[in-house]
Amino acid sequence: MGNEDQGNGRLPEANVSKARFSIIWLIPIISVLIAGFLLWRSLYNRGPEILITFDTADGLISGQTQVKNKAVTLGTVSSITLSRDMHHVDVRVQMNASAAGLLTDKSRFWVVRPRINGASVTGLETLMSGAYIAFDPGASGGQRATDFTGLESPPGIQSDQPGRTYTLVAPAIGSIGPGASVFFRDVDVGEVLGYTLPPGGVGPVMIQFFVKEPYDHYLHTNTRFWNVSGVKVGFGAGGLKVQMQSIQALFSGGVAFSLNRNSMEDEATEAPANTIFQLYDDQESADNAGYHERVPVATYLSSSVAGLAVGSSVSMFGIQVGSVTDIKLQIDQATGHARVRVGMDIQPERILSEDQIHSETIVSTLRALVANGMRASAASVSMLTGEANISLDFVKAGGDAKTYMEGNTLVLPSQAGGFSGIMQSMSTVADKLAAMPLDKIGDNANNLLAHADQRINSPEVRQALVSLRDSLKSLHELSDNANKGLQPLMKRLPEMSDQLDRTLKNANKLLGSYGGDTDFHRSLQAMVVQLGETARSLRFMTSFLTNHPSSIVTGR
């Protein structure tokens, strides 16, 4: 048949059979479907690509480093290149679709890596997993953005952390830096965010800090802050004082605040956000600033004021009543006299209640105190450190010193105090000794000693001594004779006393036999009384002469 068809010029017919479906075709079909699904999912979850500029790419790896917020991955670094100016690093990040709505001009990025800031250590978890880029979406209301400038250090607060931001004003920041803690009753309630120098470098430094909720409600417009950085060591009237807030404040610095008197009672005084407070050097300065009533006074000193400084205390009987506000040396070019003017603020709130404080009354009280001998002087507080203060002491002989006014400032009389006062008193004593005629006194003493031997050896002195010896000898002989002559009498005195007693007994018997109220009875009774008194006198004289026989010669 085939040969015939070929001979006839026709092609042979093919045998057609139906194709069968093979199960092996499921594998590529499923692969294609999975690839399509993954491609669709990748395109669906893919968010915008953003550009973040950092100073360095330390710890960042293209294709591995992730962008996280609260440990949730929101993107991955796709490429890392140098900027055209070679000063920065451009990091391109492919963000997830879920983060697209969070990318605004208020968003912040920073690299989380191990850091040591003072006493705090952060980012230790990246030692094993590697560095990552942290993301803070920022406050709501920002405009969409794709180009960002990364932070070189973590921000102090994040947008979702409740609390308020405030500002401190200080002449210098000292040991305070970003990350320093804010303490309230030794509890860490916030941290310092940063500081801003004044334009041109002239003026106070502005320190921004954050206080967490609910501690921000403790801040009032009259709240006072003080520096607690490092360790404060001082010698004062109470001895050695060492003050340290905490180990964290020792290394990284810190500030502290406390509640003021009656501040919690006035709800209207709560400080709003961005309130500006003054930063004091220490707690003592902050407490002193809480006394609002101040009476300006001054005094003029002509002695040394070494160790006295602005802020030194003004005390009375060792109790602080004010502080020094100004120290100035004044020289009168016409007369050549020099003295030191010390300005002070008397703070009556330290010793008086609010209803007793009146400016006119305080001035009158100070004048009355001066009239009673009060004087101002520079006194030494510590011999070891040389610290001094102004002491208001009372003197017994202060003279007729008076007060007067310099504008609205009351000027108090003064006297030399402390070591200078001692030296001045010694100088006064030395001047009095120098004024004494010591040369004449010495000459007279020499003359007296030179003529003493001549006067003692003179005939008059010898004759007087001989006469005194003879007189004493005669007195001794008289005493002996008197003792010898009185001996018989002394022997008979007891016998005479006994006889007198017997006479009195007989008289009493006789008196009893003559009873009745007759003249003879009364006369006889009077005689018996007189005899009794005579007997008592005789016994007393006998006893006295027995003990003091020489009284007959001496009279006693």
Overview of the molecule:
With 556 residues, this protein is α+β, with helices and mostly antiparallel strands. It contains eleven helices and 26 strands. The chain has helices at residues 2-8, 26-45, 126-129, 247-252, 283-288, 359-371, 418-435, 438-456, 459-513, 519-547, 551-554, and strands spanning 46-54, 66-69, 72-82, 89-96, 108-112, 115-117, 120-122, 132-136, 147-149, 163-170, 181-184, 187-196, 205-212, 225-227, 231-236, 239-244, 254-257, 276-280, 295-301, 313-316, 319-331, 338-346, 374-380, 388-394, 404-406, 409-412. The strands form five sheets. It has an eight-stranded mixed sheet with strand order 23-24-20-21-22-19-26-25, covered by helices on one side. A seven-stranded mixed sheet has the order 5-8-2-3-4-1-9. The radius of gyration is 56 Å and the shape is elongated. It starts with a helix and ends with a helix.
Would you summarize the structure shown here?
With 556 residues, this protein is of the alpha+beta class.
Highlighted features:
33% helix; alpha+beta; eight-stranded mixed β-sheet; elongated; 29% strand; 556 residues
Helix/sheet category: alpha+beta
> Order of strands in the sheet with the most strands?
23-24-20-21-22-19-26-25
The proportion of residues forming helix, as a percent range, comes to 25-40%
Number of strand elements: 26
Strand content: 25-35%
In DSSP terms, counting alpha (H) and pi (I) runs of 4 or more, how many helices? 11
Unreliable spans are: none
Based on Cα principal axes, name the global outline.
elongated
What's the gyration radius in Å? 56 Å
Largest sheet: 8 strands, mixed
Multimerization state:
single chain
What separation lies between the terminal Cα atoms? 200 Å
- Mean residue pLDDT: 78
